[in-house]
Here is the input.
Amino acid sequence: MPHLEAWQWMLGALCAFFVGVAKTGVPGLGAMVVPLMVLAIGDARHSAGYLLPVLITADLFAVYYWRKHASAWKLFSLAPWVLIGLAGGALALKLDERYIRPMVAVIVLAMMAVYLWRQHVKKGMQVHAHPVLYGGLAGFATTVANAAGPVMNLYLLSKRLSKEEFIATGAWFFFFVNLTKVPVYLYHGIITRPSLAFDAAMVPAVIAGALAGRWVVNHIAPKVFEALVVAMTLISSLLLLR
Here is the structure.
């Protein structure tokens, strides 16, 4: 088991719970998890390895829950550019920790800015998402920081999917992309025995979050929930820039 303080275990469990909620009911919550996991583990590079199996576990619940609604064929044009972005992210993981930590913070903050811009400034606007830009950026962001959610949300919005298709297609996309990242993380040595032991301990929290996702989206006012997510993401990301 990894040598972590009690508060680190608690913060890690909270992240795992939030991942479950994000995958089954509140996709925007995922951006907050990335900087919180870095704070919990204390290392930006290795926190990605700790988080990836948690994400894959939650992906399994998401693809099962939304298995009848996916429109995966709409992602074919995106696939080659995502792979190029993944390759770029794999190279970036060779950088020193003092560069990766602020890089993660900047990526998360940029993704959150895009999300807020779409939600509040250009609400209702038709989005024109070029697969080269969105695929490359999504592949890079998810490899370096597990933070491609807002980019993919914008891309899927451009496809005019129903609510069910939107969540289901995103779930399948991240399931396969996250599986693709496993050999990359193993190569860089950021998935280890201690990290897998940590992930095994987080499974109950992921399950609880996945089950709670539908309740959360139905019982908390969207504007209140969004404000809390944005505030916590901003604070935790700024802490990474210290």
